[in-house]
Amino acid sequence: MVSIGELSQQTGVSTQAIRYYEQIKLLPAPKRADNSYREYDDSDVERLQFVKRARQLDFALGDIAEILAFRDQNEPPCQYVMNVMAQQISAIEERVADLQRLRDELATLHRAGLTMPEDIEMKQCVCHLIKTGLSNEVGNDE
Amino acid sequence: MVSIGELSQQTGVSTQAIRYYEQIKLLPAPKRADNSYREYDDSDVERLQFVKRARQLDFALGDIAEILAFRDQNEPPCQYVMNVMAQQISAIEERVADLQRLRDELATLHRAGLTMPEDIEMKQCVCHLIKTGLSNEVGNDE
DNA sequence: CTAAACCTTATAGTAACTATAAGGTCAAGT
DNA sequence: ACTTGACCTTATAGTTACTATAAGGTTTAG
Ligand SMILES: [Zn+2]
Ligand SMILES: [Zn+2]
Ligand SMILES: [Zn+2]
Ligand SMILES: [Zn+2]
User: Fold this and answer.
1) Which residue, A83, A87, A138, B127, is the most exposed by fewest CB within 10 angstroms?
2) Eight-class DSSP state of A123
3) What is the DSSP-derived secondary structure letter of residue B40?
4) pLDDT per residue over B88-125, tens digit each?
5) How far apart are CA A31 and CA A112, in angstroms?
6) How deeply is A95 buried, as exposed, middle or buried, from its count of CB atoms within 10 A (0-12, 13-18, 19+)?
């Protein structure tokens, strides 16, 4: 039996996060010692290790809860896990594409800004470009 | 003078977001009509358009507030804007690198999962791999 | 006997909103 | 005159996955 602090050390999950997981029922409420301290056993350690890794793979807590619910009901979660992974992968790919578009836009603006004067009215300067974007601005202002 | 609904339509920012921006002092509290409805003028429209675009570039509201504060104090925000853009760009690049690493890891696990059996104990199956990672698992289990 | 290093619960804060409740105002139609 | 619908108002709760803080109880070492 380990205390919450020891569980935290063994898993690298903070004690507050562990209590939070218990609160949202991702982890079962553990036994309590006479002093009302939480006491965890090996299966709790294993469960939390799984949660930790799944979080590192950026699985949502709701997805992790569903995966663990499968197991708790003696059904293999494998298929569900595969689905979540597939969804994660396409979500990430979309996010990366969005971010790269954004990065290109910012880089272009930044480059343009290097050649522009300061302007308190934000008409001649890079700030103006933020508002209008580059496309309608190259060479002809308004 | 335009109402909040008209301002919303002209800028593509929801009325709730507009009220929220007012609450956090990103936008000044506008005049009120006799019926206590908010009334906006052209400078409000322009300011909100700037905010909208900056948000599309994923500037944080705090950064946008600082940019607008420069202007409100008659100082050109250009330098600050350039700094924020530079920071944004490197933050995005780091995030993209992180996401790509994550994507690769998930894709590898997913591929491995296709060849693995279902296992309610999560020992032989892809779920197990989630817990341990791939590196310590290829070919030799425990 | 007291100080530290634990543990407990409850609550607030993070970012940038969205959604809802409960109500007031206004123009149009019957 | 009255009702319907589309506006507007404020206040509050919810989203995600936690972290941080407050205010206190317990245990161990010096
Ligand atoms: Zn499995
Ligand atoms: Zn222009
Ligand atoms: Zn400027
Ligand atoms: Zn193994």
Assistant:
1) A138
2) S
3) B
4) 999 999 999 999 999 999 999 999 999 998 888 888 88
5) 63
6) middle
Strands A38-39 and A31-32: antiparallel
The C1' atom of C10 and the CA atom of B92 lie apart, in whole Å, by: 37
CA distance A7 to A23: 16
Domains observed in chain A: 4-59 (1.10.1660.10), 85-141 (no CATH)
Residue A31 DSSP SS3:
strand
Nearest alpha-carbon partner for A102 in B51, B83, B90: B90
**A74 C-alpha to ligand 2 centroid (Å):** 64
Nucleotides of C under 7 A from a protein CB: 6-10, 15-20, 25-26
First to last CA, chain B: 72
Rg (CA), chain A: 25
Contact between the CB of B16 and strand C at under 7 Å: yes
